[in-house]
Amino acid sequence: MTSTPFPTLLRIDASARHEGSHSRQLGDRFESAWRARHAGGRVLRRDLAAEPLPHISAATIAGYYTPPEQLTPSLREATALSDRLIAELQSAHTLLITSPMYNFSVPSALKAWVDQVVRIGHTFAYDGGAFRGLVTTPRAVLALAYGAPGYIGGPFAAMDHLQPYLASLLGFLGITQVDVVSVEATTADAGTVAAQGAAAQRRIDEIAATFATAQPIAA
Ligand SMILES: Cc1cc2nc3c(=O)[nH]c(=O)nc-3n(C[C@H](O)[C@H](O)[C@H](O)COP(=O)(O)O)c2cc1C
């Protein structure tokens, strides 16, 4: 699988909310900055709330573990969506995932995407001793929203199964540079929310500034 010859941003949105979503707002800001730096670039979007992905089925799993030359028509059909989503991911030079914390982890809508793209022989390899990521996308940005304070280096850090999970998952797949911006306390009072939001926006701008227009594109 090879990258496309022009810059591609794959944006995955996971919040069930379209109005008032802090994670989507951070994503909008990053996307605008990325577009400004990549004239002629392409943005692919997967809005997992607007168009939820199906959970993997028994047939999907059977297809994942069947050698390509032995896939029956029904197994091909059961893995066709995974094929498309993986091709989308592999075509991207930058992956942007925006996500809220739901019950200490990712929304199930995002987990459904993960289960469709994490696939042996396609996005990771296992040689009996070690795993190797096969995703060629070099960079990812995580824009995350938490209702309460205290997850980022605070008293609830051990209950954060959102950022550590996504960062280690992307590393497992071979995405070597993952930048994270988190906004906490989104359910707090208006002043706190405004201050947290402003700080997160500054962080997004800092991350976006590291995306040079001359970002090398893999052939
Ligand atoms: C179903 C559900 C579960 C949530 N679970 C948590 C949680 O475990 N911890 C937390 O800090 N906030 C939790 N929240 C609050 C959201 O993380 C917070 O409202 C966040 O801003 C949502 O993201 P969004 O603004 O992008 O929609 C939860 C919200 C919902 C709707």
List each distinct ligand once.
flavin mononucleotide
Termini separation (Å)?
10 Å
Order of helices and strands, N to C? Answer: EHEHHEHEEEHEH
Q: Quick check: average pLDDT?
A: 94
The fraction of residues in strands falls at: 15-25%
Proportion of residues in helical segments: 25-40%
How many strand elements? 7
Number of domains: 1
| General shape | globular
Uncertain stretches of 5 or more adjacent residues = none
Number of discrete helical segments: 6
Strand order in the largest sheet: 2-1-3-6-7
- Under CATH, the homologous superfamily reads Flavodoxin domain
The CATH first-level class comes to Alpha Beta
Can you describe this structure?
- The protein is of the alpha/beta class and 219 residues long.
- It has a single domain (8-209), classed as Flavodoxin domain (Rossmann fold), CATH 3.40.50.
- 37% of the residues lie in helices and 18% in strands.
- It is built from 6 helices and 7 strands.
- It has helices spanning 22-37, 58-64, 73-90, 108-117, 163-173, 190-209, and strands at 8-13, 42-47, 94-100, 124-126, 131-133, 139-145, 177-183.
- A 5-stranded parallel β-sheet has the order 2-1-3-6-7, sandwiched between helices. The chain has a two-stranded antiparallel sheet with strand order 4-5.
- Helix 1 (22-37) packs parallel to helix 6 and helix 2 crosses helix 3.
- It is globular.
- Flavin mononucleotide binds next to helix 1.
